[in-house]
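Good morning N.,

You mentioned wanting to compare the apo and holo forms, so I went ahead and generated the holo version with adenosine-5'-diphosphate. This is what I fed in:
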Amino acid sequence: MGKLVLGIAVGCAVMSCVIAGVMVGRRIRSRRRWWNVVTTVEEFKETTETSVERLRQVVDAMVVEMHAGLASEGGSKLKMLLTFVEKLPDGSENGIYYALHVGGTNFRILRIQLGGQRSILAHDVDRKPIPQILMTSTSEEFFDFIALSLKEFIERKGDNLQLSHDRGKDLGFTFSFPVKQTSVSSGTLIKWTKGFAIEDMVEKDVVECLQKALSRRGLDMNVAALVNDSVGTLAVGHFLDNDTVAAVVIGTGTNACYIERADAVIKCQGLLTTSGGMVINMEWGNFWSSHLPRTSYDIDLDAESQNPNDQGFEKMISGMYLGDIVRRVIHRLSLESDVFGPLSSKLSTRFVLSTPLMAAIHEDDSSDLSQVAKILEETLDIHDVPLKVRKIMVKVCDVVTRRAARLVAAGIVGILKKISRDGTGGISSGRNKGYKSGKMRRTVVAVEGGLYTSYTIFREYLNEAVAEILGEEIAPYVILKTMEDGSGIGAAMLAAANSARNVDTVQVL
Ligand code: ADP
Ligand code: MG
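and this is what came out, ligand included:
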């Protein structure tokens, strides 16, 4: 009997030891898996490091590339395109002006009434989807549709302004496709993007096509400016504040433009402008430098994209891509460990996590991160993850957004340095040094785009980094101003500033 009891006791003790051993083993393995996750995230954070020293290297690289792009055609990944815009609105404009914005699946028609003294007395906008069929039709059909829509807009909105009163009005045209500008109001389409394929338009003057369609519809309107959205943003910025020298768009894509001295545009010797300056469209989405903190996730994203080796800067900073970088990191974490539960097939789907959803994860301020849990469930098919894993999600979003915002900041300071508005005098030999005898000129940069306007943490990181790079003495002189709908209103304002009634003042000798 005693032996039996002893046997049972020993058996129980052995079992307990085995169970304890299994549990400890599991815990160790689980700790190890968790440690893998933490290590991978830390490594990711380190590779995306954007210390102020590194940002200053990016600033200098931007300046060098700007010089190279201005020196010769194809001299840099930065195209540094001439816009022929030398006359920006200054707030004194008066009258009614129109704008058309063709940028993707939707297009917009706008009318503004300017009253001088920087005032916008009225502002009407209409949005319309472009029928799919027209995106691959003929240029005549496409522009007929646009002209007809404009005519309907004028008739509908013009209750107190009869159509006849709109005769001879100037129109700004924002056309967000690659265009080789030949004057402020003409340019040929280089190629279509975003699903458009109207073959007979390639290499044709887009303004001429529009102008003809307007005439066919009996609209006596003059297309006075052909611009891209960053130039439109600069125009509104300058209309509202004459100290505005550059504009940046950070939405689905990204771009920047700024006012350059005409004599700095070496690749176009003999460029004469009455103001001595010209707006340069940098097409900065294509900027590249070895100083950019690139990770394996960026390399994979680029390789799998429709345009590998293209738009490298854009792929690190714009709204189209940020969510997808986060998705790639989470995918890697899920492959390395089971802390996200069974591997979700959603994690292999490109662009399944949009940037607005990523921002919602990042900005979830609930104590249990319930919004994060909801997005994980609904978008990524990842269920019941503990709080510490949700925190990892937030952390990854933070790392991706912080890098993006700080790189944009470096790009902005790069532009300011090129035009000697960063307080250092720059490596350029600018005549009008921004920082003279201890006195720094006030400098405004207009910023537009959903990422900047709707993603608060992104905006805060960006503003903070600009101040950090410039230093506390210079930073108060540099102001980033948010522009709502710069691309639309700006085009109408440029039409005002470049109205047909003014003589053309730009010549290429
Ligand atoms: P577009 O660049 O197409 O002209 P917008 O300037 O409105 O349009 O920018 C839209 C982009 O901004 C979206 O593709 C998205 O990436 C980003 N975005 C919009 N809203 C948010 C948000 N709340 N949080 C983060 N990103 C956003
Ligand atoms: Mg836009």
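The chain has a mean pLDDT of 89.

Happy to go through it together on a call whenever suits you.

Best,
F.
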